[in-house]
Amino acid sequence: MTTSALPTRASASAKTAAAPPQRRRRKRHVWVNTIAIVFSIVWIFPVYWMVNTAFKPQPEVMTSTPHFLPLNPTLDNFVVAITQTNFLINLRNSVIVVVGAVVFALALSLFAAAALSRFRFRGRRTIMVLILAVQMLPGTALLIPQFLIFNNLGLLGSYFGLILAYVAAVLPFAIWTLRGFFITIPVELEEAAMVDGAGTWRILRSILFPLVVPGVISTSIFAFISAWNEYILAYTFMKEQTMYTLPIWLVSFSSPTTGTDYGGQMAASVLFALPVVIFFLIIQRHLVAGMSAGAVKG
Questions:
Q1: Residue 102 near residue 227, CB atoms below 8 Å
Q2: What is the pLDDT of residue 256?
Q3: How many whole angstroms separate alpha carbon 150 and alpha carbon 164?
Q4: How confident is the model at residue 255 (pLDDT cuts 50, 70, 90)?
Q5: What 8-state DSSP symbol labels residue 77?
Q6: Taking the chain, what is the end-to-end CA distance rounded to the nearest angstrom?
Q7: pTM score, whole prediction
Q8: Which residue, 223, 225, 273, 275, is CA-closest to 250?
Q9: Among 7, 27, 45, 89, which one is most buried in terms of CB atoms within 10 A?
Q10: What is the rounded distance in angstroms from the CA atom of residue 286 to the CA atom of residue 9?
Q11: Are strands 254-255 and 259-260 parallel, antiparallel or unpaired?
C-alpha cells in the first residue's frame, strides 16, 4: 500500500508545482490581450469616426454635441464627393500611376534582390549600403534635386515621370524586403537544378521566383499604399489640374475662402480608402496561400 501510493503523491506534487507557472502564463496572456484590444480601439476609432461623419448631414457634423451614430443618415456627402470637379479624371490618373509604379518597382526589385542575394560580385556590399542609405533619407530632401532632373529631362507633367519618381521612392525598401526572402531559400535547390542542367534564367524563373511569392505580394502592398497616398510629388510634378491624383483632389474640400466641408471630406476619404482595402483583401488570400506553400519542406 505504501509503495503504490508514492507515484500518486509524486504526480500530485508535480501538478501542484506546475500550476503556478500556468496561472502566470494565463495572467500574462490576459494582460497582453487587454493591451492589444486597447491599442486596437485607439487606432480604429479615427477610421470609425471618419465613416460615421461621412453619413451625417451638415447640421449634425457641425453640432457641438458629438453623436456616435448618425441621427439622420444620408448619402449627400458621397454625392457631393463624387460630383466634385475632376473626381473621375483624378481617379483615372491615380490608377494609371499606381499600377505603373507597382509593376515597375516589383520587376526591378525582384531582379535586384536576386542578384544581391545569390550572386557574388565586386561592389555588392557597397551597393547594399548605398540602397540602405538612400532609404534612410527623407523624401522631402530629394524633392528639389528630383524636380530639377525631371525638368531637364522633360518628364514633368507626365505619367511616366511621376511613375519613375514613385519607383525611385519605393525601390530601396522593396529590394531589401525581397532580398530577405531570397536569402531564406536553401542553396541546395539551385545546386540540384544545376546538376539537372538548368541555367541561371531557368533557376530564377522556375525555382527562386515562385518561392518568393509571399515577398512579392507583401512588397506590392507596400508599393501600392505608398504610391496611392503620395501627395507632394504629384502636386509638385504635375503642372495641370487634369493630371492631379486623388490625394490632391482630397485637399480640394478645404479652402481658405469657403472653409472645410467636413462631411464631403470624410465621404471623399472613405472613397479614397476603399481601393486600398479592396486591394489588400484580394491580395491577402494569395499572401496566406503563398506563405503556407513556402512553409512546406520536403
A1: yes
A2: 63
A3: 10
A4: low
A5: H
A6: 53
A7: 0.77
A8: 273
A9: 89
A10: 53
A11: antiparallel
